[in-house]
Specification:
The chain is mainly α. The protein has one domain: MetI-like fold (Orthogonal Bundle). 71% of the residues lie in helices and 0% in strands. The protein has 13 helices and no strands. The protein is flat, with a radius of gyration of 24 Å.
């Protein structure tokens, strides 16, 4: 605080006072748990025996002696590569449809947001019944089109497809964020484009998309982090089966911690996940200079 006037010091103290709840929250629930997780990753801690310091043994096991680590990372990456772009496209297109000035449009906005209000466990249980090979309603409806029964929850490809579809069904939050972004675009830009004879399609590519890039950037980060945290749906749908075909990373971490009671190893996995997601986040931020445009640019 050297070099600051009395007034500036007072403003600084006031600002710190107002943001102190956030600082306390970040330190208590993010920074301290992260440090503890790294410390526990250097031990063989479990519920069944006292912990013992083992250094980097957990990390060596991860990289050299546990093929399921790479399999689970591969499945998670496949889900992220498929789900995140589809969520961005689906959320953007639906937000454009819901941005129309039509009578009763608020009713449709509410309908599309309702799935987000349903508890994930309840909705996933319902989807599991609907996706059942023999008694599910989806295969029953497909039978009218002459399509044979599909084992939705038996193979990696169909499990990922099912999970992605469920995530699209619950994309109301992303739709609302996109809708708020669309409504913040000045209408004068579209009016000027109409006067110049610009078609609606060209307006989308030259006005809507560039003005929406900050919102799409935020949705990309949220979707990417959420994809690597996928757990509940896979846990309920298949529990990682059959034969680990749907073993996403978070589910494997959970099994190591609370099924095999390898808490030290599970914390090492969480540290690795933190590094991977952090690296991807930095990569996305670095790339944003080339495709994200803000109002004054």
């Amino acid at each position: 605080m050297k070099g600051l006037t009395a007034s500036e010091k007072k403003q600084l103290r006031t600002g710190l006072l107002f943001i102190s709840p956030w600082i306390i929250g970040v330190v208590s629930f993010t920074l301290i748990p992260l440090i503890l997780a790294f410390g526990m990753s250097l031990t063989n801690y479990s519920f069944l025996s006292p912990s013992r310091f083992i250094g980097l043994e957990n990390y060596i096991t991860m990289f050299t002696g546990d093929p399921l680590i790479w399999k689970s990372l591969g499945i998670t990456l496949l889900y992220a590569v498929v789900a995140v772009p589809l969520q961005l496209i689906f959320g953007f297109l639906l937000a454009n449809l819901l941005n129309q000035r039509l009578k009763g449009i608020t009713v449709f906005r509410t309908i599309f947001y309702i799935p987000c209000l349903i508890v994930v466990v309840s909705s996933t249980l319902l989807w599991r019944q609907m996706l059942d090979t023999d008694f599910g309603i989806i295969n029953y409806l497909l039978s009218f089109l002459g399509i044979d029964k599909v084992s939705w929850l038996a193979k990696t490809g169909t499990i990922i497809a099912s999970t992605v579809f469920i995530s699209l069904w619950q994309s109301g939050k992303m739709i609302i964020i996109n809708l708020s972004g669309l409504q913040s675009i000045p209408t004068s830009l579209y009016e000027a484009a109409d006067l110049d004879g610009c078609s609606k399609l060209r307006q989308v590519f030259h006005i809507t998309l560039p003005m929406m890039t900050p919102v799409l950037f935020m949705n990309l980060l949220i979707g990417l982090i959420g994809a690597f945290k996928t757990f509940t749906q896979i846990k309920i749908l298949t529990d990682g089966g059959p034969n680990d075909a749907s073993l996403v990373y978070m589910l494997y971490l959970y099994k190591n911690a609370f099924v095999n009671f390898r808490l030290g190893y599970a914390n090492a996995m969480s540290v690795l996940l933190f590094v991977i997601v952090g690296a991807l986040t930095i990569l996305v931020f670095r790339s944003s200079n080339k495709w994200v445009f803000y109002g004054g640019e």
